């Protein structure tokens, strides 16, 4: 393995970037043990402390796993930071189309799996949304997160948590645009009722309907521009 030697500026960041590149380009496979700090330091032309800090960053990001006494191993070759950058670069239409897919299935699962705590949380989120008004992106996002968490699917919840960063930015931008419709509180109520009734089909339909008008509006704005 040949790594490009890091310069003097932002050494840790440079090493992080180079190690990330090795992961995403398949230099190491999931489960592989990466070279020792000493070897990486020599290959990169930096100190061992710099390598150690860079590895810590990648461990924190979930790409690597440190096992005491055994070394550091590759946990994932998919860089979540790169995924997030791509999602953040997506437009409002892309985000809404993905939201329809994610939130329709989340509503279906929530209706089938919700418990008493989930129902109380959904009602509380809806009440907050009504109190804060139909232009409050934070309250709206909290409501949708409550629906997703009622799926009791850890993977679904984590993916939506990751995706919700862009959802929030999209909401803030769109709700501040007078061309966008206000939040449909009745549609949110219909979704809660369907989840409470334990009706997956009705919940999925309600989630899709909830996003229908915003989606159609964004498509019309995009076409006009």
Automatic annotation (TrEMBL):
PROSITE patterns, sorted: HTH_GNTR
Domain called HTH gntR-type: residue spans: 9-77
Keyword field: DNA-binding, Transcription, Transcription regulation
Pfam families per the UniProt record, alphabetical: FCD (PF07729), GntR (PF00392)
InterPro entries (UniProt xref): GntR_C, TF_FadR/GntR_C, Tscrpt_reg_HTH_GntR, WH-like_DNA-bd_sf, WH_DNA-bd_sf
Protein name: FadR/GntR family transcriptional regulator
Lineage, top ranks: Bacteria, Bacillati, Actinomycetota, Actinomycetes, Kitasatosporales
């Amino acid at each position: 393995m040949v790594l490009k030697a890091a310069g003097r500026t932002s050494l840790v960041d440079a090493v992080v970037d180079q190690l990330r590149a090795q992961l995403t380009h398949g230099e190491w496979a999931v489960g592989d043990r990466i070279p020792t700090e000493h070897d990486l330091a020599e290959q990169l032309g930096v100190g061992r402390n710099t390598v150690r800090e860079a590895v810590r960053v990648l461990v924190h990001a979930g790409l690597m796993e440190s096992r005491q006494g055994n070394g550091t191993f590759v946990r994932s070759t998919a860089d979540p930071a790169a995924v997030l950058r791509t999602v953040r670069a997506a437009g409002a239409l892309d985000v809404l189309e993905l939201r329809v897919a994610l939130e329709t299935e989340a509503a279906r699962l929530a209706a089938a799996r919700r418990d008493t705590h989930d129902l109380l949380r959904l009602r509380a989120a809806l009440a907050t949304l009504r109190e804060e008004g139909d232009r409050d992106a934070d309250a709206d996002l909290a409501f949708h997160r409550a629906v997703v968490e009622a799926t009791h699917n850890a993977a679904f919840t984590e993916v939506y948590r990751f995706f919700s960063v862009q959802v929030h930015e999209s909401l803030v931008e769109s709700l501040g645009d007078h061309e966008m419709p206000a939040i449909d509180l009745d549609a949110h109520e219909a979704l809660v009722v369907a989840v409470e009734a334990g009706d997956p089909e009705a919940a999925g339909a309600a989630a899709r309907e909830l996003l229908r008008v915003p989606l159609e509006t964004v498509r019309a704005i995009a076409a006009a521009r």
